Structures are given as C-alpha cells and as structure tokens.
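Lab notebook, bench 4. The sequencing result for the construct came back, and we need a structural model before the next group meeting so we can plan mutations. Quick request posted to the team channel:

Model the 3D structure of this chain.
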Amino acid sequence: VIVPRRWGKVVRRNRAKRVLREILRASLSSLMSGMDVLVLPKEQLPVNDHEKVCAELQALLKGLGLLIRNSHG
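Done. Here's the predicted structure in token form:
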C-alpha cells in the first residue's frame, strides 16, 4: 500500500494505509493466490467510512478479476 505525500501529514497517510491493509487482510481468503497486489489510491479515502472503502476496494478487485468466485454464489 502506497499513499502519496500530497494526502497530507504522515498521520493521515498512515491511517489510510492501516485501513487498506485491514480490508485486504480480511479479503485474503477470496483473493487469487500467486499474485502481488499494489494499492496506490489516486484520491483521498474516506477513512472514517470503513464500509464505503471496503465496498470500493472489493469492486475494484472484482473488476480486475482478482477475486475467487465463491461456490455458494
């Protein structure tokens, strides 16, 4: 996870990194194995709205074909 300096002070950048890493860690079981994923957000994240960030990241991963299809769905 890389967050650009233009986002502001280090506290805000580190918070964004922690939120993204937490979401990715929770998604590990549904991610394809054998791939490295680099996350470089272009816009500031609403770090206080965890559900919105999670939904957006999940949609991006699905759009890239990096999520394993669930056999239940």
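The longest helix spans residues 10-26.
Will bring this to the meeting.
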